[in-house]
Amino acid sequence: MNVVVCVKQIPDPAAPQSLEAGTHNLDRSGKLILDEADTYGVEMALQLVDKAGAGEVTVVSMGSSSDLSGIRNALAMGAAKAIVVSDAGLRGTDALGTAKVLAAAIKRVNPDLVLAATESSDGYTGTTPVQVAELLGLPSITFAKSVTIDGSTVKVDRQTEAGYDEVSSPLPAVVTVTAGVVEPRYASFKGIMAAKSKPVEELTIADLGLDGQVGPAGARQEIVSVEAAEARQAGEIVVDEGDGAERIVTFLDSIKVL
Amino acid sequence: MALSNIWVVVEPANGQLTTTSLELLTHARTFGASVSAITWGGSGASLAAQAGEYGATTLYDAGDLAGGLPGAPVAAAIAGLVASAGAPDAILIPTSYDGRDIAGRLSARLDRPVLTNVTGLTDEGGLQTEHPVFGGTLNVKARFTSDGPGIIVVRAKSFAAEPSGGAAASVSSIAAGDLGATGTAKIVTSHVEERTGPKLEEAAVVVSGGRGLGEAGSYSLIESIAKLLNGAAGASRAIVDAGWVPYSHQVGQTGKTVKPTVYIACGISGATQHMVGMKGSKNIVAINKDPDAPIFQIADLGIVGDVHKVLPALISALEGRG
């Protein structure tokens, strides 16, 4: 069983974030880390391959940076190899362009299953995995809270507004996983050392035959303006001295909720 | 150039259109364009009155999906309609599980871009979208630079739903055609998780719990306070992901958007992902032991303290008032 996991290196969400002047692209000049949302897909893939008893996990990523420490992190968790499409011309690529790049890279592996997070923790577009599925002509199941493989079928509990659905699909398929699907392992020292020598194939836009279709030219959408949102003023912040509950009751009274 | 044609994807649920669908129809008709709605399930005739009441003149029905997930078949049916009827100026889609699937599939099929997490939409000689970023601290305005149709995925509660008193929409069937492998994901069984009290999106009071509760068992404190205030119990993504409470309780970017009279955040630090879903609340009360928690920056009343002390005291105080 061969599984591809789509992963993304993002600016550390704990650090202050900003948009670049002029392009309005997210500033990615600082250190990039593996999106935590992707660690669940990596873990799920490792467990499914373990259970199948054969095959390997490949991580596929797109970015404009040569910093690969986030990718090494996925390899340290146990992925066998990585394909990274890294090209300065990818700055400003939109979700569909990203999907075209990932789909072209995934085709080289021809996996039984493609896993991804439901959305990245920087852009939050949330459509890329399904766009990849459409471009590859595959079925997709989004928002998985559990994933099992039964022969050539993938079975997923998919979150819904009302609860969840049991959904099944023949393989190959694209599945997006929520953060609750499995508990990601920490990379061991041995894993971190092994990751240094695992193969990372670096590709350019031209290698994939996508010249002119991605990057800002292919984006076909632009940011018109960026403005500070109307700031919500912080109110009264007090340290609880045993009177916290009382203060809340008084506040609720004042806004006539009680 | 004036907008002439807008399509709105409207989602059926329990024999009605979802509230977000009605919000999108309402807003679509403000542009003076012809508004058509697109649904699925084969019960278009029973939804036609409601679609018309909110402004759609035509309701296209992609039919019974035979257990298939809506993403692929509905996107294919819409793409077919674009091919036969011509492209509209824009296709508006509600932010929901199935809405996002439809948007992604349609974008790839039509080779057209998609803008998501939209909370505002205006006509500036072409449609302009608004997106809150960085936890709602910045508002980004964007537009498409290519030929239509632009695909726009709009968050719940971005607009008010108001009926126009229009006549029932005329119903027209559309078909997905051959989907190949893309149509093979099927729903085997649906599970509905019961909940009591007012709905999260409609409650005047929302009491939410986060990781600061420490353990799943402490969520009962949140439920007790919600019940005492006749409100709804919500949750941060962290504790939903941890499996403490079902997803239907989640407030935030990937959960529900709420705008209650008062939002009481208990043990929630205020991650970007959470703030986007509750920042529009009229009043915000936060209880957190970390004085630097971002949630305090938007709280009208912030209590720096231990939820395990403050919440039981609050329950006693509220019970005391009967």
Describe the fold and architecture.
The complex is a heterodimer of chains A (258) and B (322). Chain A has helices at residues 36-52, 69-77, 95-107, 128-136, 189-195, 216-219, 244-254; strands at 3-7, 9-11, 32-34, 57-63, 81-86, 113-117, 140-150, 153-159, 163-170, 173-177, 200-203, 221-228, 236-239. By secondary structure, chain A is α/β, with parallel strands linked by helices. Chain A has a single domain (3-219), classed as 3-Layer(aba) Sandwich (Rossmann fold), CATH 3.40.50.620. In chain A, helix 2 (69-77) packs across helix 5 (189-195) and helix 3 (95-107) packs across helix 4. The relative contact order of chain A is 0.17. The longest helix of chain B is centred in the N-terminal third of the chain and has 15 residues, at 71-85. The model of chain B has no long low-confidence stretch (mean pLDDT 93). By secondary structure, chain B is of the alpha/beta class. Chain B is built from 8 helices and 18 strands. Chain B has helices at residues 19-28, 44-53, 71-85, 97-110, 219-228, 237-241, 272-278, 307-320; strands spanning 5-9, 12-13, 16-17, 34-39, 58-61, 90-94, 114-118, 120-123, 127-133, 138-144, 150-154, 170-173, 186-192, 205-209, 232-235, 262-266, 283-288, 301-304. In chain B, the strands form 4 sheets. In chain B, strands 7-11-6-1-4-5-12 form a 7-stranded parallel beta sheet, sandwiched between helices. A 5-stranded parallel beta sheet of chain B has the order 15-14-16-17-18. Chain B has 2 domains: 5-183, Rossmann fold, CATH 3.40.50; 205-320, TPP-binding domain (Rossmann fold). In chain B, strand 9 and strand 10 form a beta hairpin. In chain B, helix 3 crosses helix 4 (97-110) and helix 5 runs parallel beside helix 8. The chains are: A alpha/beta (258), B alpha/beta (322). At the A-B interface, helix 3, helix 4, strand 7, strand 8 and strand 9 of A face helix 3, helix 4, strand 7, strand 9 and strand 10 of B.
